[in-house]
Amino acid sequence: MDKWWENTDDMDSKDYDELLFGKSEDFAMDPEEVYIEISDIDFSSIDGKSRKDKLKKITKQTSRAKLVPKKPAPKKKAPTKRQAPPGWKPVGMNKKGITKVSLPSDKEILVQGINSFILSQDDKSQALKNIGYYKGEKLKELVLIINNDTPNPFTIELFNPSSPLDWLFSTSLNLNNSISVAGNNKVSYTDMLFNLLANPTIIPNAKFVVEGANPFIQENQAMIFKNKNIAGHEKVMPIQMALNLDIDQQQRQILYWDIQEQLGRVFCPDGMEVIEYTILPGYIVTFGFYYKQVSLKKFFWKELRNKGVL
Hints:
This protein is α+β, with helices and mostly antiparallel strands. The protein folds into 2 domains: 12-63, no CATH class; 122-296, Jelly Rolls, CATH 2.60.120. It is built from 10 helices and 13 strands. The strands form 4 sheets. A 5-stranded antiparallel sheet has the order 7-5-13-8-11. The chain has a 4-stranded antiparallel sheet with strand order 6-12-9-10, with no helix packed on it. The protein has a two-stranded antiparallel ribbon with strand order 1-2. Residues 1-6, 24-28 and 32-37 have low confidence and may be disordered.
């Protein structure tokens, strides 16, 4: 006599699923719940002749099995946004990193890997950062080279239009041989002086470089600013240039100074404002004066504007 489990090949897995659990599109059941309902059925009495009747009873019992609906998946909570403290602003980010950082002015900012001179807010650092600019405008640079190859100190009043003539009468030498204007030697020192008389010029700041055996000795020479008028009055203001040595630059022999800060105004070389300075024997001093100039010929004559006139 054939037993029931000897003919299980007659039914495939799909038939078993429909027999025990019904069609999948009708409902969804939890297999564990169905196992609990039919665990009390005795399959030992099923034989070949009565298996159909027995299976009908099994079908009736499985049809009464408790149906367990599917439980919906729990909803994920959205991450809560952090609220910034009062007074703090957001920091912009992109794939390359931080692009902008905004912090309250009363908070201390610590940045590593940057020279402290760049981030410094003291008066000296701000004055050095303004070199070459006036009210946010980039200035032009006038470079004067003074070479004292004589055994005697060389004292000169820079921007004094009468100095070339006085020097010629006292030494019978040409002052242009000692003072030259950088720029392919197209303009002499005397040409520059006559140009300043006709075209108002201001010099807010400057720098200079010293070359010689001991630059520190030359740097200790005071620079004297003289302001005269046609009534015969004169104001004298000495400036010790060594105090303005910029130690944050790689070329530490370069001296910067903010003329506007130390004089309380810009320097205007109009023939009556001069700078007296002494160059020691065997030294070369290169001045870089940052200036802004008004060309009167372009100011009065519109025909000369934007016509290629320097």
